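Q: I'm a student working through a structural biology exercise. My instructor gave each of us a protein and asked us to get a predicted structure, then write a short paragraph describing it. Mine is Ethanolamine utilization protein EutN. I'm not confident about reading structure output yet, so if you can add a plain explanation after the tokens, that would really help. Here is the sequence I was given:
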Amino acid sequence: MDIVRVMDDLVCTRRVPGLGSASLRVVRSAQGVVSVATDPVGAPVGRWVFATTGSAARLAMPDPTCMTDLTICGIIDQWDEEVPPVATAHRATDTGSGASKG
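A: Happy to help. First, here is the predicted structure for Ethanolamine utilization protein EutN. I'll explain a few features afterward.
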């Protein structure tokens, strides 16, 4: 999941059928990347939200057949925007299970 800020509503009167009537928001990451997200929670402009990507984004929508790869999942109550998010790498470690890595 990512933390992004809602910058504006996005109104598109003509869309592919797979988007249905999903609400759309323009969001910006802390690194300045601008994207469009579907918004089933009604996040207001200016708020920090957390969003999910990929196939999880479809599952977060009320209609899991919605064509989206970025969905707002919740509105963050408090976020210090002065503290940049720290990227962490999830690394598998070898625990000595004896499994061969061929």
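A: Here are two points you could use in your paragraph. The CA atoms of residues 31 and 84 lie 8 Å apart. The longest helix spans residues 55-59. It's a good idea to check both against the output above yourself.
Q: Great, thank you!
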